[in-house]
Amino acid sequence: LILAHFDFRMCCCFGEKNAGFDILYHNMKHGQIATKELAEFVRERAAIEETYSKSMSKLAKIASNGSPLGTFAPMWDVFRVSSDKLALCHLELMRKMNDLIRDINKYNEEQVKIHRKTKEEVIGTLESVQSLQVQNSHLQKAREGYHSKCVELERLRKEGVPQKELEKAELKSKKAAESFAGSIEKFNRAGRDFEQKMSESAQKFQDIEEAHLRQMKLLIKAYSHSIEDTHVQVGQVHEEFKQNVENIGIENLIQKFTDQKGTGKERPGPVGFEEYLSPLVSENSKKSRAKAFRIPGLGKRDKEPDSM
């Protein structure tokens, strides 16, 4: 399959009213509009990502304020970590969008300089277009005048007017023919000048437009890659979240709860019947036990060694 190569010189140089130059020039200026609109689009995307990041941070705060009571409590930490990471992912994308906006604005500044320089370079073509339009108007008038004089001369001949009057009409017709021929020459000369300059300008516009489209596609590619990277990161966060949920089993949640809130493992032993003792009986019992345990003969005399 062979694709035809279309360029501005083939499609936009010529035609009725010679409007090609005006079309190509304004198309170049539209490139600046497209660049500004792309920057605005990316700016809106950055604002969306910033809002989403703040929403995820709010969600993480809600998770951190989850009830610490009950066996489900540890799961809130999984939600908090996941939400925090998602907030960071979208915050990073917002930063990348802002960096891209700076690149777009920088390109727009370069674009303005190129367009200003090009305008100066193609001013001669604009003058050539205007000259051709003027010569075309003169040519149409000269053609109409010549044809009018020819019709008048033919009418006079048919009517058989006097020779003097006929000669006068022939002279006017001859002058009209000369004027028409001169207009044709001027128009053709202007046309050749226009064709050359228009072809050169069309090539300039073509080069500018191709460079513009290449640059715009590079900017869009950077936009696409930034989003793609974020989607990969978000996918990893979701996968990590899913894995963390799977790793925390029901038994783990119950065991963690019992470890934190357990009241002890010792079971109460059996209790026997105890008889009631009054305080007086209890006191006499203590004194009796004290006397029973006294050891006599522990004075100084008992401690001296035998002299024998």
From TrEMBL:
Gene3D superfamilies listed in its UniProt record: Arfaptin homology (AH) domain/BAR domain (1.20.1270.60)
What highest taxon heads this organism's lineage?
Eukaryota
Record keyword Membrane present: yes
The record describes its membrane topology as: Peripheral membrane protein
Where is this protein localized, as stated in its record? Membrane, Clathrin-coated pit
Task: List, alphabetically, the GO terms of the cellular component aspect.
Answer: clathrin-coated pit; clathrin-coated vesicle; plasma membrane
GO BP annotations, alphabetical order: clathrin coat assembly; clathrin-dependent endocytosis; convergent extension involved in axis elongation
Q: Which SMART domains match?
A: FCH (SM00055)
Keywords from the UniProt entry: Coated pit, Coiled coil, Endocytosis, Membrane
List residues of the F-BAR domain. Answer: 6-253
Give the signal sequence positions: none
Q: Name one Pfam family in it.
A: GMIP-like_FCH
Main location per UniProt? Answer: membrane
The similarity comment for this entry is: Belongs to the FCHO family.
PANTHER family, per the entry: F-BAR DOMAIN ONLY PROTEIN 1 (PTHR23065:SF6), PROLINE-SERINE-THREONINE PHOSPHATASE INTERACTING PROTEIN 1 (PTHR23065)
Protein name as catalogued: FCH and mu domain containing endocytic adaptor 1
> Which organism was this protein described from?
Cyprinus carpio (Common carp)
